[in-house]
Design brief:
Largest interface: A-B, 22 and 29 residues
Number of strands of chain A: 14
Largest sheet of chain B: 6 strands, mixed
Structural class of chain A: alpha+beta
Helix content of chain A: 40-55%
Oligomer: heterodimer
Bound molecules: adenosine-5'-triphosphate, magnesium ion
CATH superfamily of chain B: P-loop containing nucleotide triphosphate hydrolases
Distance between the termini of chain B: 16 Å
Order of helices and strands of chain A: HHEHEEHEEHEEHEHEHEHHHHEHEEEHH
Largest sheet of chain A: 6 strands, mixed, barrel
Shape of chain A: elongated
Order of helices and strands of chain B: EEEHEEHEHHHEHEHEE
CATH architecture of chain B: 3-Layer(aba) Sandwich
Distance between the termini of chain A: 25 Å
Strand content of chain A: 15-25%
Radius of gyration of chain A: 30 Å
Strand content of chain B: 25-35%
Number of helices of chain A: 15
CATH topology of chain B: Rossmann fold
Number of domains of chain A: 2
Strand order of the largest sheet of chain A: 2-3-8-5-7-6
CATH class of chain B: Alpha Beta
Number of domains of chain B: 1
Shape of chain B: globular
Helix content of chain B: 25-40%
Radius of gyration of chain B: 17 Å
Number of helices of chain B: 7
Chain lengths: ~400, ~230
């Protein structure tokens, strides 16, 4: 009877109830959209960062993150790669030598960074630079003399495809060494600093130059099928590598700036959503309270004939539960097509954001998309539901405080 | 001797109105006995509603005692008083007695639902009572689909459905025309005579007052007269 009364009470003021349910639904829609946009950008940011060389989980020589120099190495990077590749959560594992170098062509020189890689294992699907290749192609052999350079660096050094490039660095023993390669490709990420300083080199050739053994490297980057597995995967490897002089870092440990940026942004986003949620909740509180105040006499009669105040409170709470449920369902129904469209097709924002849109030096896809994990969906639903019930709490308590003698006098 | 259901002993009720104390009821002694068909009458402001509220455990006296079925109710908590009201007292108010979202049947069942009487049993008992009060066929109507007199009949059905010791009715006929008032009085009289339902009701209306078996006159919160008629 309680639920029946609560349900019918809602439809006494159809318009008002529909507006209230509508604001719950709007809250759901808004929260899904805001969370979806934010989570999508974090997701892309992390994956893109991972594809710029550091992976979701990275093996490094211990202390390398503080002093990245070419004399600290992983003695058997190939073994680490083999081990990681066996994990079904791993998409691919990339062995790199990363270091600083001077680049020269003719009389021009520029400082920069190189990433030495095995062309057989890399392509546009795992390496962002290759995805942004503008001219030429990736060198074919790990032992060959090819190189791929950023567009701005190429301009600075006057490089074109087929031209020679000299790179000079320090080898494993600290000696100055240099080598000549030929430009096979030019990439353009759109991020100026990256395009002005990055060179991709064939790994076996760099090993020879630096005096590394055939399995030696500075980093092994692990790309996961799902970035959220990074902590679990890293924990596993950390245990396996204990005492071996190998550090295992998750992407957020390897890129604390990026992780901090995401954490701050997520916090702000949540705060904003809670703020908007409270505004919507205040509107809901207002309408439920109005409906309670209008029914004082009715409540007085109910209490006079023996209804306990607790049941009255429960009835008004059940009314807000119904508002919440109807609003949530309407919100979900409204959000699903919107979500599906934005999750698959997206809206291209290139005209607004321009080329090379980046966050903290990480190139971003300028398409508006939504990305939600089940836990985000649950959090939004629980949050909206909770706020609606919270909004119903005060009116419900007010209903329980009705004094029969006084309210019956109000005809 | 009849059993006493409600006993007011030296009951005084004062209201604070600004700095002034308004004495709505003053040292009133009154007993309601099983089987009574009593009317409280008196001019407006004489204290009828206040007396009924105290008899119905809706309000507590400033001084004096209210004894309900032999029990002093001053020590009862609000929840205990609510239980006594639910189980032992039927209420009929002047107007807007009914819960607008419930049908006639559901309104009449309301108290039994609060008592936890199972639905099939409720339906049988209330169905019979609605027929007895002349509402057969109107069970599924909402209050706004019933006339004022029909609404009061539903209120009567609700009041008697759970078998209370006494039914308290504050001006039950004040909002209906005199013809309807007469039929409502007929119904209450029949229930009193045939089922032994005890009624205490208030009224200004001399046509109503002369139908009562006992007339309690109030004036300025005092008992003016208390006459039994047969
Ligand atoms: N809540 C209240 N606050 C102040 N004074 C009150 C209150 N309730 C009743 N009174 C006063 O107490 C007196 C008795 O009121 P009561 O309502 O019991 O009279 P009544 O006989 O029922 O009158 P009526 O025939 O108009 O219904 C009146 O003077 C009234 O003004
Ligand atoms: Mg009155």
């Amino acid at each position: 009877m309680l639920a029946k009364m609560a349900w019918r009470n809602l439809w006494r003021q159809k318009r008002r109830t529909l507006i209230t349910c509508g604001s719950v639904a709007f809250g759901v829609f808004l929260a899904f959209t805001l969370t979806g946009i934010a989570e999508n950008s974090y997701f892309r940011l992390v994956d893109t960062g991972a594809m710029m060389g550091s992976g979701h989980v990275v093996f490094q020589p211990e202390g390398w993150d503080l002093h990245p120099s070419l004399d600290r190495t992983l003695a058997d990077a190939t073994a680490l790669q083999r081990e990681a590749d066996a994990d079904p959560r791993v998409r691919t594992t990339l062995v790199h030598i990363q270091g600083q170098a001077m680049f020269a062509s003719g009389s021009k020189t520029a400082g920069g960074a190189f990433i030495a890689l095995d062309p057989a294992r890399e392509g546009p699907d795992v390496n962002l630079f290759l995805r942004c290749l503008k001219e030429g192609e990736l060198f074919a052999e790990a032992g060959g003399d090819g190189a791929v350079v950023g567009e701005r660096l190429a301009q600075r050094l006057g490089l074109r495809l087929g031209k020679k490039l000299v790179y000079t660095s320090t080898d494993k023993r600290g000696e100055i060494v240099s080598d000549v390669v030929r430009i096979r490709g030019i990439f353009r990420t759109g991020v100026a600093e990256v395009d002005a300083s990055t060179v991709l080199l064939p790994i076996d050739r760099v090993r020879k130059t630096l005096g590394y053994a055939a399995t030696e490297a500075t980093t092994v980057s692990v790309l996961l099928r799902d970035q959220q597995d990074a902590p679990d995967v890293a924990r596993l490897y950390r245990e396996a590598q204990r005492g071996a002089g190998v550090a295992v870092l998750t992407w957020d440990e390897a890129a604390p700036d990026l992780a901090g940026l995401i954490a701050v942004d997520r916090g702000m986003n949540r705060l904003f959503q809670i703020f908007v949620g409270l505004l919507i909740a205040a509107g809901i509180l207002n309408t439920i309270l109005m409906s309670v105040l209008e029914r004082q006499r009715e409540f007085g009669v109910m209490m006079a004939v023996g209804m306990p105040p607790t049941r009255l409170v429960a009835m008004v709470l059940v009314e807000s539960v119904f508002v919440a449920v109807v609003g949530l369902i309407a919100g979900i129904v409204a959000t699903v097509p919107w979500y599906l469209y934005l999750a698959t097709v997206g809206i291209d924002l290139t005209p607004m954001l321009g080329d090379g849109y980046n966050v903290g030096g990480v190139l971003m896809d300028p398409t508006l998309r939504l990305f939600l994990r089940p836990r985000h969906v649950l959090a939004v639903l629980a949050g909206v539901f909770g706020l609606t019930i919270l909004a119903g709490l005060y009116p419900a308590i007010r209903a329980g405080l009705v004094q029969p003698v006084e309210s019956i006098r109000l005809v | 001797m009849q059993d006493t259901i409600i006993e007011l002993g030296g009951v005084t009720k004062t209201y604070q109105q600004g700095k002034l104390d308004v004495r709505a009821v003053d040292a009133l002694d009154l007993k309601i006995r099983a089987g009574d068909f009593a009317v409280l009458c008196g001019p407006s402001g004489s204290g009828k509603t206040t007396v009924l509220n105290m008899m119905g455990l809706l309000d507590a006296p400033t001084r004096g005692t209210v004894t309900f079925e032999g029990r002093d109710v001053s020590g009862l908590s609000a929840a205990q008083r609510a239980t006594v009201r639910r189980d032992r007292i039927g209420f009929i108010f002047q107007a807007y007695n009914l819960i607008p979202v419930l049908t006639a049947m559901e309104n009449a069942e309301f108290i039994m639902d609060l008592q936890g009487v199972p639905r099939p049993e409720r339906r049988v008992r209330v169905g019979q009572i609605l027929t007895d009060v002349g509402l057969a066929g109107l069970e599924d109507r909402r209050p706004d689909e019933l006339s004022g007199g029909q609404q009061q009949r539903v209120a009567i059905a609700r009041a008697i459905a759970a078998g209370p010791a006494v039914v308290l009715a504050d001006e039950p006929t004040a909002n209906v025309d005199s013809e309807t008032a007469a039929t409502i009085l007929d119904l209450m009289e029949t229930l009193n005579r045939e089922r032994g339902v005890t009624f205490v009701f208030s009224s200004h209306d001399s046509l109503v007052i002369e139908r009562a078996g006992r007339v309690v006159r109030l004036r300025d919160g005092h008992l003016e007269s208390d006459e039994a008629r047969s």
